[in-house]
Amino acid sequence: MKNQLLIARTFVFCSFLVSTSGVLISEDLGTPNAPSVEFNSSHLDSAFSSTSSPSATPSTSSSASSSASMLEMLPMEVHNIPGSYRPADSEDEELIAHLVPLEGEAPLMAPIRWAKAGARHIQAEIRDYSCRIVKRERINGVLGREETIFAKVRHEPFSVYMKFEAPRRFRGREVIYVEGKNDGLLAVHGVGLEALAGTLNISPTGRQAMKNNLHPITEFGILNLARRLAQTGEENLHRASYSVTYAECKLNGQECVCVEVLNSDPHEDALFHKAHVFVDVKRNFPVKYVAWGWPNSAGELPVLEEYTYVDIQTNQNFSDFDFCTTNPEYNYRESRR
Q1: What angle do CA 127, 235, 211 make, to 5 degrees?
Q2: Which of these, 182, 167, 183, lies nearest to 20 by C-alpha position?
Q3: What is the dihedral of CA 146, 253, 221, 140, to 10 degrees?
Q4: How far is CA 159 from CA 121, 178, 303, 313, in A?
Q5: CB 188 within 8 A of CB 162
Q6: Residue 87: exposed, middle, or buried by beta-carbon count in 10 A (0-12, 13-18, 19+)?
Q7: Is the peptide bond before 328 cis (omega within 30 degrees of 0)?
Q8: Which of 194, 202, 236, 328 could disulfide-pair with 16, CB 3.0 to 4.6 Å?
Q9: Distance CA 198, CA 73 (A)
Q10: What is the spatial distance between Cα 98 and Cα 243, in angstroms, rounded to a whole number?
């Protein structure tokens, strides 16, 4: 009997690894009811008509899903801002004002200033937060279905708890990562038959976790997004092919400024042709990032990656227990002992 149980557990464990090949999965098949966050490209492109050609317009077939959503569609209103962005109503106008370009400087300089100042602001003022993230990523040329994940994030020490809400196949899967704990490994458990394998400890940057992901969990969150935007800007600061445009908008009812970065040169290490960064004006941190590649044969811009943060609740005073597999609010096997 013990041998049979061991064989069964080994079979489930191997099936789990083969079928998922990772933790944060971009599911290509998905379900008809996967959550959808629609991107109102027509409004944005009319607002950016001075810098974006028709070929740079993301079509609805590549930038939005037709499936139903358990989250509300994120309504967006966009208005042109000639020249530069100047805040009208912000809790910290000095930080937002970093987006104002200075005469004679490179177009990417103002977004870099904002991203660096924003990262310092987040690190100083936000200890932790909970949120939902809706994400899509193109892996090996295939755009995966949207995933919706509830997350808790703590900055010191960097800690992440995730619970998948969609697609249905992964609903209930949980992931915990704490910097400096568990030998630097993820603690993850599956659902259904996968749950029989118990808690698995997996490298966050190993083949299993990264096969279907563009970024590891160690780079998750709004602070790391701001840092990554600053780094990308600095790496391309002196390229003449980049232009930047600003627009005021409302995303999910929140006042935002949309920073559009357009790259006209498909050089070898170019990350995107066009990117939009949405900055929450009142809280001064990025709440959405979407990037497109160069037009395909049909003239459509393929979405490369898209991340939307919603339901953000800051400074929740999370403790170590919020990032522990023995927390009774979670469904880890350890939490049921």
Answers
A1: 70
A2: 167
A3: 30
A4: 19, 4, 29, 16
A5: no
A6: buried
A7: no
A8: 194
A9: 36
A10: 17
> Long-range contacts made by residues 71-74, C-beta under 8 angstroms, separation at least 24?
71/35, 71/36, 71/37, 71/132, 71/134, 71/148, 71/310, 72/252, 73/36, 73/37, 73/38, 74/37, 74/38, 74/251, 74/252, 74/308, 74/310
Q: What stretches in the chain show pLDDT beneath 50?
A: 2-91
Q: Residue 135 in contact with residue 149, Cβ under 8 Å? A: yes
Q: What is the pLDDT of residue 336?
A: 67
| C-alpha pair distances (Å), 229 with each of 116, 150, 180, 285, 303 | 9, 23, 25, 12, 17
- For residue 39, what pLDDT is reported? 35
In whole angstroms, give the CA distance from residue 97 to residue 90: 10
Q: Which amino acid is at 283?
A: R
CB atoms closer than 10 angstroms to residue 141: 7
Q: Which residue is associated with the tokens 């870099």?
A: 112
Note whether 117 and 124 are within 8 A (CB): no
Q: Tell me how far apart the alpha carbons of residues 67 and 35 are, in angstroms, rounded to a whole number.
A: 7
According to the model, what pLDDT value does residue 335 have?
A: 65
The answer to whether the CB of 146 falls within 8 A of the CB of 135 is yes
Phi, psi of 38 (to 5 degrees): -90, 145
Residue 56 — φ and ψ, nearest 5°?
Answer: -90, 5
Identify the pLDDT of residue 233.
Answer: 96
Q: Tokens at residue 258, please?
A: 């949309």
